[in-house]
Write a structure and sequence with these properties.
The protein has 17 helices and 23 strands. α1 crosses α6, α10 packs across α11 and α13 runs antiparallel to α16. The protein is flat and about 85 Å long. The longest helix is centred in the middle third of the chain and has 22 residues. β20 and β21 form a beta hairpin. The chain is an alpha+beta fold.
């Protein structure tokens, strides 16, 4: 037997141990059974049709199919594949079906005895050799609210090489990532729209891990979680073989379901048929949810945490007391020199902490804010020289792994039932939110001060007339509240759109499309509390409004506490509607949640509103479940 066929034979033997085999002669009945197995349907990316009993592949590139009917006929594609991988080589070996579709070839030959044409798949073997993969790690990059493409986080696969002498540099490992092939000039709004409607092709790319770390951890300041999968060598080889099959092909990209996380689940399902991770996906595939599913199916052998540059800096600054923080800020901004008495008079331990934290901060500002080199370089040199004189003092170290991982927070879908009172009417309310998190949800595992809600629907039945009304439909609602201090001055902001009930001068409640936004600042108050001051703007559109629309500048002054057991938010919101019916709208409110673990919450709210010279008291009490 030629040497070049030995790896394929070994892989085939390993795969055959995982699957029962059929008779050597593929009868029509055998082929029909094979065509409906999880493994074959996953290899072809087939999914049951919504209407009817057939299947359709999600692959949108004709070159993926060997049968003209392969897009919608798994059996026809199987027959065509069997014929192609059994056919003799007539030209370039690398163009043969065994080389184009090595994952299909491996799986089919583990189930059937077929003719084995001698073929040298040099391009595939060279590619696989360059990847040099021994294990696979599923990597999760935490959410990043400043980009629609990353609001829910991002996942990709890292291909870990064999360990040499007990360790290896994983930054040099390769990664497999699936993302929208968006035009560079598309802005974030256009990206979000086209991503939702499937306006981009999705592409599978392979690139070094250090590039991903630089983008996600160093530039976008997103923590990375690394979940090493417990795939066997044969399963790892099968995953790589299928990656080869699809790496240059197009799959339409959809922001909420057929996204980065979805395609990686398909690769894991190919590697280990029967895992059926894709069965978990309904209306959306959120990266943190896909990590949960992998953990729940016992696919994870080990978890590692890689803090971002911003996390490292905040950890260093968090090691300083109030006086040390003030001194570090003064040094970093050039008000105090390293050799000044204010620094040198401190104890060696305190001085070492201040120097370490200041150096970390300056280095971060050079990378993040582009501090000029002529200022930062001499300062960094002075900090390092002064720190070298304190070699007996321990470094600040690195942040430890958070107690709660992102995948261990509450599930992202939420269902709530509530009862309440508005004006002079009582109601019962049902609320459904497919994703993701708001400020009063259980905070563990989510970024503090971050809110992202998608397609939340609140429906009410008013008991006096047994009247049903849609109270609010939230399309998207985002709030990013990051506290400001002597070191960082981030902008807190919010944006949202959807439809909601609004009052008219005649005391009617009409359903109006709306767009709202705001920007301001957030400050820590101590004890886990923070204060928010934001200038806001609202737009409502309705034929029931005198001019068809109305605009309202306003202000939002609030305080927020997010706790493991109790979360509270209170404040005053004031708006001045200036276009149609010119009037003020004011609301004083208090909202709270009592968390029953991470799966349930009790919520209550009370408010006093002033609108169209009418005063109303509103309250609500509800129970919410996360799943």
């Amino acid at each position: 037997m030629p040497i070049r066929t030995v790896p394929g034979l070994i892989l085939g033997l390993m795969l055959s141990a995982s699957f029962p085999t059929f008779a050597s002669t593929p009868t029509p009945e055998t082929l029909a059974d094979l065509a409906t197995t999880d493994a074959w349907l996953t290899l072809g990316h087939y999914h049951p049709d919504t209407l009817g009993s057939g299947y359709t592949s999600q692959a949108d590139d004709n070159s993926f199919f060997l049968s003209d009917a392969g897009k919608t006929d798994p059996a026809a594609e199987l027959r065509a594949t069997i014929h192609a991988i059994s056919a003799p080589v007539t030209g370039n070996d690398n163009a043969h079906a065994r080389c184009r579709f090595p994952a299909r070839d491996n799986w089919i030959r583990s189930r059937l005895e077929l003719p084995t044409p001698q073929v040298a798949c040099t391009e595939f073997e060279d590619w696989k050799s360059q990847l040099n993969t021994r294990a696979v790690t599923l990597v999760f990059a935490a959410s990043y609210l400043n980009s629609p493409s990353s609001m829910f986080g991002h996942t990709f696969l890292r291909l870990d090489p064999p360990k040499e002498d007990g360790e290896t540099n994983l930054l040099l490992a390769n990664t497999i990532s699936y993302a929208a092939d968006a035009a560079e000039h598309d802005n974030e709004i256009l990206f979000a729209y086209r991503g939702i409607v499937g306006g981009y092709p999705g592409i599978t790319t392979v690139q070094p891990y250090y590039k991903m770390v630089r983008v996600y951890s160093d530039i976008e300041n997103r923590d990375l979680w690394e979940y090493r999968l417990n795939l066997t060598p044969a399963e790892t080889d099968q995953m790589l073989a299928h990656t080869w099959e699809i790496k240059d092909l197009n799959f339409d990209y959809y922001f909420f379901d057929e996204n980065c996380a979805y395609r990686l689940l398909a690769l894991i399902d190919v590697a280990r048929p029967g895992t059926r991770l894709l069965d978990e996906v309904s209306t959306h595939a959120i990266p943190s949810d896909t990590i949960r599913w992998a953990v729940d199916r016992n696919l994870v052998a080990e978890v590692n945490y890689r803090p971002s540059a911003a996390t490292q800096v905040n950890y260093s600054l968090g090691k300083l007391n109030a006086d040390e923080r003030q001194l570090a800020a003064a040094i970093a901004n050039g008000y105090i020199a390293v050799e000044d008495t204010e620094v040198q008079s401190r104890s060696p331990a305190s001085r070492a902490k201040v120097l370490d934290a200041t150096y970390d901060y300056v280095r971060h500002q050079v990378q993040e804010e582009g501090w000029p080199r002529e200022f930062a370089a001499p300062l960094s040199h002075d900090l390092l020289m002064a720190r070298s004189q304190l070699s007996d003092q321990p470094p600040l170290g690195s942040p430890g792994e958070p107690e709660i991982r992102d995948d261990q927070g509450h599930d992202t879908m939420r269902l709530g039932i509530a009862g309440g009172y508005t004006g002079d009417r009582h109601y019962a309310e049902l609320s459904l939110r497919p994703a993701y998190h708001d400020l009063l949800d259980p905070p563990a595992g989510y970024r503090p001060g971050a809110q992202l809600q998608f397609l939340r629907l609140d429906g009410r039945v008013y008991t006096d007339k047994q009247e049903f009304q849609v109270e609010q439909l939230v399309g998207v609602e985002i709030r990013s509240l990051t506290p400001r201090d002597a070191f960082f001055n981030p902008l807190s902001w919010q944006v949202g759109f959807g439809g909601r009930r609004s009052e008219t001068p005649d005391n009617d409640r009409i359903f109006s499309p709306y767009l709202e936004g705001g920007a301001g600042g957030t400050w820590r108050l101590g004890g886990g509390w923070q204060a928010l001051a934001m200038l806001t703007g609202d737009l409502e559109i309705s034929k029931h409004i005198r001019r068809g629309y109305d605009l309202a500048p306003g202000v939002d002054l609030s305080i927020l506490h997010q706790g493991e057991r109790i979360s509270l938010m209170s404040g005053v919101v004031s708006k001045a509607w200036i276009v149609s019916d010119q009037h003020r709208e004011d609301r004083l409110y208090l909202e709270g949640a009592y968390h029953l673990g991470r799966d349930y919450s009790l919520r209550t709210s009370v408010a006093r509103s002033h609108h169209y010279e009418r005063y109303e008291t509103l309250w609500k009490l509800g129970f919410y479940a996360y799943f």
